Amino acid sequence: MNYKSTRDVKVNVQSAYAISKGLSSDGGLFVPEQIPMLSKEKIMSLCDMSYADRAYEIFKLFLTDFTDEEIRYCVNGAYNDKNFATNDIAEISHLLTGTYVLELWHGPTCAFKDMALQILPYLLTVSAKKTVDGKKISILVATSGDTGKAALEGFKDVAGTSIMVFYPEDGVSNMQKRQMTTQEGSNVNVCAIKGNFDDCQNGVKQIFTDEKVIAELEKVNTVFSSANSINWGRLAPQIIYYISSYAQLVKNGELEYGEKLNVVVPTGNFGNILAAYYAKQMGVPIGKLICASNANNILTDFINTGVYDRNRPFYTTVSPSMDILISSNLERLLYHLTGENDRLINEWFTLLKTEGRYEVSDVVKSSIKDIFYAGCCDDTQTKAAIKEVFDNYSYLMDTHTAVAYKVYEDYKAKTSDNTKTLIASTANPYKFGFAVYDALGGDTNGIDEFELIEKLEQLTNTACPAALSQTKNKPVRFTGSIEPSDMASAVLEFINK
Ligand SMILES: *Cc1c(COP(=O)(O)O)cnc(C)c1O
Question: N or C terminus: fewer CB in 10 A for the chain?
Answer without folding.
Answer: C
